[in-house]
UniProtKB/TrEMBL annotation:
Record CDD domains: mut-7_like_exo (cd06146)
Organism lineage string: Eukaryota, Metazoa, Chordata, Craniata, Vertebrata
Molecular function terms from GO: 3'-5' exonuclease activity; nucleic acid binding
Source organism: Anthoscopus minutus
Gene of this entry: Exd3
Keyword Hydrolase: yes
Gene Ontology terms describing biological process: nucleobase-containing compound metabolic process
Residue ranges, compositional bias (Basic residues): 551-561
PANTHER family linked to this entry: 3'-5' EXONUCLEASE DOMAIN-CONTAINING PROTEIN, EXONUCLEASE MUT-7 HOMOLOG
Chain spans, region Disordered: 551-584
Protein name: MUT7 Exonuclease
Domain 3'-5' exonuclease, chain residue ranges per copy: 336-534
Keyword NADP found: no
Keywords: Exonuclease, Hydrolase, Nuclease
Pfam families the record matches: DNA_pol_A_exo1, Mut7-C
Amino acid sequence: VSRQLKEEIRRGFARLEDPLAGLLAMLESSSDWKRKGHSLGYCITTELQLWIKAHPAVPQSGTKLKKLQARVLGMLSQCPANLLDPLISIYQLHAADRNYLLEHVSHLYLQGSYKEAAILSIKLKLQPDQDVEKMCTPLLLQDKVNLVEDYVAEYPELQRKLLQTLDTWCDPSFNIRDIARPYQGLSGYKPEKLNRRVLGKLIFRLLERFSVDPALCPNVVNQRHLRTLNYLFYKRFVEKTMTEENWADHIQSTVGENRWLQGHLVQLLLRHCGKRGTARWARHCRVLPEMLPQAVAEELQKLHIQGRVEEVTKAGNYEASKKKDYYQLPIPWENIHFLQTWEEMLQCWEKVLQPGQVVGVDMEWKPSFGMVGKPRVALLQLALKDEVFLLDLPRLLEQAEGEKLPHFIQMLYSDAAITKLGYGMSGELSSLAATCSALKDMEKQMQGVVDLLAVDKQKFDGLSPEHSHKERGVRRPEKGLSLLVQHVLGKPLDKTEQLSNWEKRPLREEQILYAASDAYCLLEIYERLCKDPESFGLGLDLTASLVGKQSKKPKAKKQLNKQKAPSPFGQECQGPRTEPSGSPAPISAQEFSVVCDNMLQGLGRYLRCLGVDVRLLDNEDDHRKAAEIARQEGRVILTSGLPYQTLRSQVGEGRCFSVNCSEKAKEQALQVLKHFNVQVSLSDVFSRCQ
């Protein structure tokens, strides 16, 4: 709005005997103000608001003001959002008769203007005198969840009433159609948005947003616990990836003394464990006797009589012989240090905070299974070349010297001279901040970090978990860090302890080994990538490829990129493998025979055009088929990225070549021809084409 127009508007108000009545008369005679944005009506209204502040004597009171308030109230339901506050301020609606305002909003509601009634209630702060269920039900049926949240945002008591109402709707015996029936003609009517699953997610989000005790919503909490129960039974008896002791911990903490959940637990036990197993676990989980079917109760009585009530054993799903299928921690047990006191922490402090140090970092927390709140870190693992430190965070933070721990962690993450290795560090740091508020801004200060998840996503997506599954022939495909460990180090991580109760003390031996392995494997992955970056499709400048936010100063980053990446095993990381100085003997294109992996079909076709004898794998072929063809027909394997690691060990030295996938087929072909000293003559070109 130009200064000239503003001045003209103000001069106009100064000439009016009653500016408030004048503004209303103008708005009532025009429809310009009803459109969104900065209409002329909006400009005049906001200028009057400013003019009134400069002329305090202007505002009116008494009967005349009440008449103006009645007129403006009739306009508010048609107002764009940006006009509401100025008009409410000018006509002092906050000070108007509350019953009159409530009556007006009720009239809007009865007309079916539910959104307008709610917005006006929020602006005039009428919510404490309204029925929260009545006001919010039509809004929820129209999927106006944000407006519902705004409606209760400043009123804790209304938040609790809303959550209790929503939880009532989640009762298995409640029929959602009963509340939806009166609103069937509603515009934007979306009753499907009120199914129990959607409502459950909404309730948990509101519980977290408003910091309300989940115990207020027993129906939705029970449903979430039931889903957790089903998940735990799937992990234990179908997928078979959870140890018995680990599973029992979670079953007990999930069910507790809740009779409804105990009933479902008994049904699940009968389905998976039979009568005898159900009796044993019912005893272990302290299920009330009246919850047991007669056949199970009789079996439990037999166990009592025979004195054969079995305790949970420490045996896991996997026999010791199967452990060889998984990554093994290469350092001895005595080099794993579980730290619970500040005196123990000092040795860790001195060794970890050394310039040039490379540290594998991982964290563990108790699984929340979808309950409210961010997980709190129960264990922080720091792996060095020869030892691993496991920090008992809850115990260390509660000690007198607890404030020193955040300082140590900040020093570690902010020191560019120390390389920190992680996998999915952003999520871990978020949980760390929830555990200790002093660490909430640490992500902004990070330097010298290497998140191997970024490398995994960029470079190793070519081998899907399904391929890995076929290669190993095990129950389920690997994923995440376990899949990366398998790709780079040859064997996956044993994840049977992943869903442990990490807050329970003492930790079991299996938990300690799992936690140490999770952090230490990062060192070995990094070392392997440093030694042979080309084989994994990484750039020659490994530091630039891997190292994350090093420094806010561009100069420092440039200098760092010129250095070789530090190695956790005391050597500098090597660049790409250098070929022997002597070139292989020349070979003609007709004599040169290759098998191309399925991600290099473009290269294969290009080489065939040059006269090379080429076999191409189909898209659905397993990478291992290339090794079979190479051995049977004496061909060289051309592959890229991760499959190179698998295939090169299955053929003779020099019979497997890793091609740069980021280049075009022509450049790839030139690379292959140069490496194998293949001579292409004019007569070779198109000689194999039909």
